[in-house]
Amino acid sequence: MEKRTFLFVFIIAGLVAACGEPNYQIVINNPVDVIRKDEPVVILRDSLVALMGEISVDQVILVTDADGKAVASQCDDLDGDGTWDELFFVCDLGANQSVSFDLGVVNKSEFPSFTARAHAQLKYSETRNNVFIPINEHTRPADHVAQSTPYLYQFEGPGWENDVVAFRTYFDSRNGKDIYGKLTKRMVLDSVGLPGTNYHNLAEWGMDVLKVGQTLGAGSLAMQVEDSLYRLGPTREAHFRLVANGPVRSIIELIYDGWKVAGEEYKLEGSY
What we know:
This protein has about 270 residues and is mainly β. It has one helix spanning about 45-50; strands spanning about 10-15, 20-30, 35-45, 60-65, 75, 85-95, 100-105, 120, 125, 135, 135-140, 160, 165-170, 175-180, 205-210, 220-225, 230, 235-245, 250-260, 265-270. The strands form 6 sheets. It has a 5-stranded antiparallel sheet with strand order 8-12-13-14-15, with no helix packed on it. Residues about 15-20 have low confidence and may be disordered.
């Protein structure tokens, strides 16, 4: 198993910016002799509030680098209560290097837009008319049949991607996980699986590169009981929630209730 070395993050007392508003500086230290690219940095809201004071529901944190340039970041509401819980961004670090960033509180309306490097979605066609609408939360119909057409979901379920690769999971009794190889850094899932397209053939963006079939695919769930392996199959209920959606981190949550394994019944909750 790969040994993971953590970053050290130090928050320095407030500094007064040119506009008169206080900023706070963080220093991120890489303690190992290894170059680290796109390292994730997570700072809890509670830690920021304890240092910076109350942050309203209409405010987020703006991260800027040593040159004053805004860094792609996001404030994510992980539990869905309407208040964001974590500040997230990524940074590059040289071997044994320390890098500083400034943090400032801004209104959501003033927050800049960034080029997306992460994206997630579930698109749904309630009337099965080949028009798919993005939804943030959804419970799969109990009578949904795998591979029934016209499709209920664009590319048959939720998908998530970064600027290198994309994934999808079948939101039906198969519950397989698939991989799309990408030839572009832009986000492509919005256009994948639409009528008249075939993701099994090479397109300018890439293609489906994994033949899942009856296998577990790219990390599908299964449980071993003695010498038998039970893959996640039909469940009484399946629920989807879009937790976070870019620009640098996307998260989906899947909950399966009523998974029957060797005479027992289980509930699974997972995020991707």
